[in-house]
Amino acid sequence: MRVIICGAGQVGFGIAERLASEGNDVSVIDTSEQLIERVRDTLDVRGIVGHGSHPDVLAAAGADQAEMIIAVTLYDEVNMTACQVAHSLFDVPTKIARVRAQSYLGAHFGDLFSRDHLPIDVVISPEKEVGQVVLKRIALPGATDVVQFADDHVTMMAIECSEDCPVVNTPLSQLTDLFPDLNATVVGVWRNEKLFVPHSADQLLTDDLVYVISHREQVRRTLSLFGHEETEARRIVIAGGGNIGHFVATELEREGARTNVKIIEHNRERAIRVADTLRRTIVLHGSALDQQILHEADIQDAELMVSLTNDDQVNVLSAVMAKKLGCDATMSLINDLGYQSFTATLGIDAHINPRAVTISRVLQHMRRGRIRQVHSVQKGQAEVLEAEALETSPLVGPPLRELDLPEDIRIGAIYRNGEVVRPDGETRIKAHDRVVIFAKTSAVKQVEQLFRVSLQFF
Question: Fewer CB in a 10 Å sphere around the end CB: N or C, the chain?
């Protein structure tokens, strides 16, 4: 696929890196010569210095033959204009734009991005996407990653196996025998910096990070089985009253939960605006690195500190300080991959990578076949995909044990007629089933082939 990416920042670079590694023909546009030089030196892509919304620059990037444009510059208006120009002058089929300003995304302006106005096929709002991830982590504190599939009926969780994990050193096949009514499947294991798809004879070890796909109604039971019975935090301090922090606080209030939320915001004007829009949340003006401000926020009594500022260093240090001052658990927003590798050693309980969230949304529209949703894990080493099985799919009909499936994939759940089916060797996939699959990156293309529309379908 020929793809044009406007913006060579962290998100644009990450998308280009992923798409280029899969053999796509990628061109990256940015006004910064330094960023483009980095792209050229590091990735197998074309780098073009210029404005992504300018027709001549898009033409030089091969827009007349491009199948997709992904506009992720720092400026919403540039992203929207780039998609408009790509549509009007070059008839690019698929247009994706990152739009951060919430004023563009109001429900009463729902047709703004229609084909008759601003022809953007997919609008990505990083603040809302990341905010939703934060809310899911708050709701399920025992999981380090949470994503929902099949209209929220299926949940994928990443769960750490601590020393007191009850299922450590037990073959996975025995877990099925011990808990036959548990609708949950272990689909992936991260161990000693390596990711693998386990077999029934494999055992889980202490310090493993386990990927489990479960029926949503059995999520808490599954967490309990792995030794995680943490309760949902009710006293929360949020560092950063920007779009993400404001969104999280707003949603917590809207849910009507008995949650005591306090926000620390360093910009006085922003703090006043946020305070005016929230009913029950207390907003404090000051730095999240100021111990006095943290004490004013009652950090010593807080059950969770969520650091959501635009500065990775502030997010890391404020989480460390909060833990030292008595906060039970911490969660930090971290963009820099270099920081993510040592968060656990600093006592940070969970971190969120906004770049990974955006890349997962883009991949959903890159995947061929009837792929409905994609979530990237472990810095792109694997994906969890939801796909719809068609009549012509080789998956339809035979029992799973008779299918010659790739070693590096595992079917975690099947959503059929409103019910979640836990797959086993005798399970038969039917047409129109929605299948949730864990696949290492090397096997993603094979998954696409399993769900592609065959000519026989017509």
Answer: C
What is the DSSP track for 205-246? -TT-EEEEEEEGGGHHHHHHHTT--PPPPSEEEEE--SHHHH
Q: Cα separation of 146 and 331, whole Å?
A: 14
- Report how far Cα 316 is from the mean position of its chain's Cα atoms: 20
Q: What span, in angstroms and rounded, lies between the C-alpha atoms of 350 and 361? A: 21
Give me 409's structure tokens: 């994939």
**Three-state DSSP class for residue 441:** helix
Contacts of 105 (CB under 8 A, 6+ apart): 99, 123, 125, 128
Contact 414, 189 (CB under 8 A): no
Cα of first residue to Cα of last residue in the chain, in angstroms, is 24
Which element (helix H / strand E) includes 307? Answer: strand 304-307
pTM: predicted TM-score of the whole model, two decimal places = 0.84
- Tell me which residue has tokens 């199948």: 67
Task: Quote the CA–CA distance of 325 and 294 in Å, as a whole number.
Answer: 9
* Antiparallel, parallel or unpaired: β 154-160 and 145-149: antiparallel
Distance CA 377, CA 385 (A): 11
Residues 368-411 have pLDDT tens digits of 668 889 998 988 899 999 999 988 888 999 999 998 888 899 99
- Please report which helix (H) or strand (E) contains residue 371, including its range: strand 371-377
The pairing of beta strand 122-124 with beta strand 94-98: parallel
Phi, psi of 290 (to 5 degrees): -95, 115
